[in-house]
Specification:
Blueprint (H helix, E strand, L loop, with lengths): L1 E5 L9 H17 L2 E7 L12 E5 L1 E2 L10 E2 L4 H9 L4 E4 L4 H13 L3 E5 L3 H8 L3 H16 L3 E4 L2 H9 L7 E2 L13 H8 L10 E5 L8 H13 L5 E5 L5 H10 L6 E5 L4 H10 L2 E4 L8 H8 L4 E4 L15 E3 L3 H11 L3 H14 L4 H21 L11 H66 L1
Parallel strand pairs: 1-2, 1-6, 2-3, 6-7, 7-8, 8-9, 10-11, 10-13, 11-12, 13-14, 14-15
Antiparallel strand pairs: 4-5
Length: 465
Amino acid sequence: MNICLLNDSFPPVIDGVANVVINYAKYLQSEHSCGVLVGTPDYPGTDYSVYPYKVIPYQSFNTTALASGYRTGNPFVGKAISEMAAFAPDIIHSHCPASAMVIARILREQTDAPVILTYHTKYDIDIRRNVKLKPVADEGIRAMVSNIEACDEVWAVSRGAGESLKALGFQGDYRVMNNGVDFAKGRVDETQVKEVTGEFDLPAEVPVFLFVGRLMTYKGLPLILEALKMLAERGKDFRMVFVGKGPDRALLEKKAEELGISGKCIFVGPVYDREKLRAWNTRADLFLFPSTFDTNGLVVREAAACGLASVLIRGSCAAEGITDGRNGFLIDETAEAMAALLEKVGDDLPLLREVGQHAMDEIYCSWEDCISVAYDRYGAVLEEKRSGTLRKAKKQPTDLLVSMTAHTMEEQARLRRIGTELFNDFKETAVGMMENIQEAEESAEHFWDTLAEDIQRDLQEFYRK
């Protein structure tokens, strides 16, 4: 199969969904011998040729100041889409319902390949965060849902993610398809742990709590700080490590200082090396993830890969598959509940190790296994399409616009091909003419050289006589 993966983020931007696309591309190619193409907004200065599969960057606009460091792709770039169409995808798999999904719909018009979308995160929250005018934000959310309903099949990374989408007005069906973890299963060697974490103030007898991810207040991070203040007031020592970056880092550092716990909080910054992240997960005693925003919480599975248990909000998407006290800990969404749990289990390292081991055994899922499931589903979708049983995508008001855009781009591509062929023909003719001229010049040059030699020889003979 040829698989076209589309997303609005890809390195040099690193986030959870970009990481998903990287792993899809890697394992579809290496384990299932698929042809893989990735389409993504262009980040100027990035070398996309380093990947073992084709990456087509398309025009983007600099919206990094408005969209938390992200550029916005232009989905109406005909040349890039023509390149994608020439790849002849069997499956178009979009991982974002914005510009990537518009491109997916245009590509479907040109190639007739079915479109699958994976709903990864609560994009409506990001829309409302970045668009301050409510009517504009509402219209943006409606457009997003319409884009999603135009798919042939929708995947959600958790049941909670799917239900969140339905709450926005989505009227179709969805299929839960879990994401995997690219961490090797097992704890990191102590020597490597010391190399990575040794420079930080982490006393051996003091419990270490960890958070990994984008530093955004809506991930429940203020709740962590408020709980830790209560813990400190009860005479409990600890270290809280935040790994990651985000627009709210300064705000969180200020809050930690105001609460009087800044000396116990360590903001490491982003860590892109996966082995170093494994080392942090191995060094920590408990992973704190009180987010009700995240729809899957891959970081929880990454922690589990290293035998690290997590504290999660009861009923959240990240808590799916977690049994309280068995392979993780569930609390109500309050600082008081977090503080009470940390006080209860924070010093009981044997218990934390036992629960962490259960997490490793029960909720860990490798990318190899997850991509195998996705690959099988791709095949089933293609078979349903061939047999005529694939669910018809819901008609959308923008279908005509997408169709007209696709056909306009096809006509532009056809004219480009004709123009290129004409130019090549002209170039070949011109080259032929230049070759003939060059041959004539060489013949003339040879004639005059020979004549000059004959005259010189005749003169020499004349004077000799």
